[in-house]
Structures are given as structure tokens and as C-alpha cells.
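go over my protein:
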Amino acid sequence: MSATLKAEIVRKLIAEVDGLPPRLQLAAKYIVDNENAFGMDPIRVSAEHIGISANSLVRLADHLGFDSFDALREPFRSSLLARNDTTSGEGWIDRLAEEGGFGQAHARTLRNETDIVMQSLRHLTAEKAKAAVAMLMEARNAYVTATRASYALAYYFHYVGRMALPNLHLIPRHMGSPVDEMISVSTEDVLLAITFPPYSADTISALRLAKRNGTRVILISDSELIAPAIEVDLFLKVSLQSQHHFSCIAGAMSVLESLLYHLVTRGGEEAQSRIASYEALREDFGAYWQPKVPKLRRT
């Protein structure tokens, strides 16, 4: 019952958010985006996270027809405490499959995605993760390369990773080949390459050039044997099994996310300072949309 009521509250908030006063809009978005935290935290903690007064949360509860903030929070709290219902684990996927038709097909692809992530993370042992992070952090320059569909993975890894690791470079940066930007790579550098079948000729060329120059290589792929004369220093195997024609990259993304966590953590205060500087710069130049919340008039 609590899960149903919680879902109804979330649906109502989504449907009515645009018509709410600005501060209640912020509260509604926070609840929709952070259901678990909202169910756990007292009113003042939630208000602090949102950046509004506790009274605004009381007003939202009243708008939704609840007698108090606690009454609004209760369905979210109860849902968290229901540890043994069928929504825990993968029971929700089983229920989808029981619907038949589209639900059965949808359950099949969801199961496939969870299997991909689990298998890929199982291959990423603590020893391999530690070795990859050490290689990246100790390098004079760390390069990450991929092409075509997998370029999105390399772009994201660089976008986040450079804030913790300023000597991390994405290649190719523009419409070119990665080898164009590897003219000066040496034994002091590291190349992180991402490629999936059909393997990219450009990525294979970059791998061969790296080894010719004595550059250490980390390869993220489904196989270490992607082409003749390819030697790598560290191979991170990922699962790509798919329910459609193309490779599923969810497992590769989970591996990259794990590496990013370690890079940011190992970067310590310097990494946190760089991240804060990036965020401040983006905010100064209006990179992020911000709702206009009226200032409280003090008397």
C-alpha cells in the first residue's frame, strides 16, 4: 500500500510541478529525484538539501492533502522499510515477464543489461582496478581513445576524469585519427583504449603506435585478441552480449565509472579543489539552468 501511495505522490508532483510556486517546485523536484533520502531524513535536513525553509515542505504537504510533513514522508519511509517484499532483488523483473507480450520482451532485455553489468564488474578485480588507476595517475600524460559508438564512453571518461587528473587527454579531439595526436607519446605515458567488435582500425593503429613507442597500454574490450600484433599491459574485460544487433555498453560504462571513483578519491584535496573550480566557472558563465526563486524580503 505504501509503495502505491508513494507512486501516486510522485506522479502528482510531476504532473503539477509547473503550476507550483518556485520554492515548492524545488521541493517537488527533490522528492521526485531523491525518494530514498526523502524517506529517511527529518524535515530540516531535507529543507537544507533543497535550499528552502522547512515551512515550504509543510506547505507542499498541505497542497498534496496531507495533515503534516510526517504524513507526506511516511509512504516513502515505509517503502524503504519493506525489505522483504517482492520489489527487492530482481523480483520486479520477474513480475514484468509474467505480463507476457511486451512485458516479457522488456524483462528479457532488462535481465540482459543487469547480467552485462554484473559480469563486467566481476572481471574488474580490485587488483586490476588498482593497477589501472596507478598507471593513469603516475603517467606524464594519460590518453583515452575510442571511435564511433564507443567514442561516447571515452568522451564521458575524459569529461569527468580530467577534473581529477589534469594530464588526461581525449584523442581524437576533432575529426581526425588518434595517431595524429600521438606524435610525442613515450614510455612515460599511458594509453587507455576502448574498442568493441567490429574493432576500429583507428584504435588498433593507435595501440600499435603506442607499443612501438614503449607507451603503456590499458585496453577495455570484450577480447584481448582484437587483432594481430596487439600487446597490452593491462586488459579490462567487459561483457557485450546484446539482445539487438549492436554491442551493449552498459558493462563498459560501469567499469569506467568505477575507475572514475578511484581517480577522484585518490586525487584527494587537489582533485576536489579542481572540481570546485570547474563548477564555479560553469556557474559564472551560466552553463547550468537555474530556476528563479524570489528572495525573501526581510523586515
